[in-house]
Amino acid sequence: MPSAEGDQILVGDIGATNCRMAVCTVEGGRVRIVRRATQRTGEFDQVGQAIAAFVGERAPARAALAVAGPVRGDDVALTNARWRFSAADLKREFGFSDLLILNDLVAQAEGVLQLDAADFDSLGGGDIRNAGSFAVVGLGTGLGVAHVRRGAGAEAQVVPTEGGHAGFAAYDALDLRLIEVMREEVGRVVLEHVLSGPGIMRLHRALASVEGRAPDAPESHEIVRLGAAGDDAGCARTVSRFALALASACADIALIQGAQGVVLVGEIANALRPALQRAEFRERFETHGPGRGFLSNVPVAVATTADLGLSGAAYALIRR
After folding, report:
1. Domain count, the chain
2. Listed residue (195, 187, 301) closest to 254, CA to CA
3. 91-137 pLDDT, tens per residue?
4. Residue 315 and residue 282 share a domain
5. Which candidate, 155, 134, 123, places its Cα nearest to that of 269?
6. pLDDT of residue 292
7. For a pLDDT cut of 90, what percent of the chain falls above it?
8. How much is the pLDDT for 215?
9. How far is residue 3's CA from residue 256's CA, in Å, rounded to a whole number?
10. Are 194 and 231 within one domain?
11. 314 and 293 assigned to the same domain
12. CATH number for 66
């Protein structure tokens, strides 16, 4: 059912840490956010409470909720939080005439498809908008990955994946030592154990252990802030190592997907942009054994626009 111009849509970007919600309208085919709020996921027992706290007594007739977890039918559960709900029950509870539940990286990818050149910070390899297919990699409480293949005209296919649960591969001897330290905590080390908000802190502790230092315990945003500014040597090494690990992961994802580009999304990726702009990131991305030539012309970019998950959820509902 196409959305009428001016109709209000409730959209949500629901993660393990934050639950972002907004009311938006569609004007001239573009989504405009009218009102938004960010709630802490852990402050509510279930998603219905968070929706009610945002919308009040009356919700818009149509809604699209992007969730940080797989969507494979009516029963929906977040991967890194306790929320679990039935889409059908939620639709009845709020009287939605139309409710779309989608993976959060699918929503981010739908948002990316609407961006202009000014909305990207290029990390080399050319113009990301020329990529016929690309991976979308989202850094948050976990690591999300989606695959986008452009079709004829405005059509595109967005495919969710669970790429964040693929194994983390060592690039050099230091990576091997870091994996050994992290393995004692988490068992098999997968990408999101390293490349996420909690992963930054885990990597910081592991580096301290390998270097024989007493581990401090700053939050992930503080590690990034101190490291990017050069105000703390340990945090600077963590940020540098994180950026290199992200480059390797992006290369692996591009090679496995056959993607012609990679787009990084989310607050962490944007906070890391100064580190990602260094030559070491691009060098690590392109250096992949005999496959180096496969990646030399593959663009990588950071999407700098805020609220991509919210606007993307609305675009997905409209496109459906």
Report:
1. 2
2. 301
3. 999 999 999 999 999 999 999 999 999 999 999 999 999 999 999 99
4. no
5. 123
6. 63
7. 83
8. 78
9. 36
10. yes
11. no
12. 3.30.420.40
Same domain membership, residue 268 and residue 221: yes
| Token pair of 267 as six digits | 């607050």
- Asked if residue 177 has pLDDT above 90, the reply is yes
Length of the chain: 320
What is the sign, positive or negative, of the torsion defined by CA atoms of 2, 51, 311, 246?
A: negative
Same domain, 187 and 95: no
Q: Are residues 260 and 189 in the same domain?
A: yes
Domain span at residue 240 reads 164-303
Residue for token digits 């496959």? Answer: 291
Answer yes or no: do 171 and 294 share one domain. yes
Q: Read off the tokens for 209.
A: 């252990």
CA distance 85 to 103: 14
Structure tokens at 242: 């994180």
Q: CA angle, 144 as apex, 141 and 150 as ends, to 5°? A: 150
| pLDDT at residue 313 tops 60 | yes
- pLDDT (mean) for 175-182: 98
- Identify whether residues 313 and 268 lie together within a single domain: no
Structural tokens at position 184 = 């004692």
Give start and end residues of each alpha helix (H) in 211-291. 220-229, 233-257, 267-271, 273-276, 279-286
Q: Which amino acid is at 150?
A: R
What one-character DSSP code corresponds to residue 213? P
Whether residue 156 is contained in a domain is answered as: no
Integer-rounded Cα Rg, in Å, for the chain is: 20
